[in-house]
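Ticket #4471: structure export looks truncated?
Reporter: QA, pipeline team
Priority: medium

Steps to reproduce: submit the single chain below to the structure queue and open the exported record.
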Amino acid sequence: MRALELKIPPPVVALLCAALMWAVAHYWPSSAWAGPWRLPLTLLLVALGGAADLSGLLAFRRHRTTVNPLAPQNSSTVVQDGIYRYSRNPMYLGMALLLTAWAVWLAQPACLLVLPLFVGYITRFQILPEERILQARFGTPYQDYLRRVRRWL
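Actual output as written to the record:
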């Protein structure tokens, strides 16, 4: 299974999951999961997901370290401030929130079943390999960070 590690960019994984959600919503029997709360909840989730993504990206830029998820070995530092005090993976968390917004907008509860697929895939084939590489590169400071901050939230 290591052949899949760090191979597919996480935004591509998120887009594939979004397409799967669309297919589920399109081909699954219709449900009455729509209401006046749908648009405000969708917008809230988009705002939260976008803020998490952007905050993580800006922190990486501020510390002048790579934002390329396929090359964690090029990292120049362990970013531990800003949103990284609360989540080790705010950009992936942001993608998960955006997928949740998409599921709400599609108004099909079955679409939510795709979220564990995204989280599982990203954890297994992106986050765990990143953590191995960063631990080898940064040692004890990174190990301390792993103990202090949760992987997702």
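Status: closed, not a bug. The export was complete when the record was re-opened. Leaving a note from the reviewer for reference: The chain has five helices and no strands.
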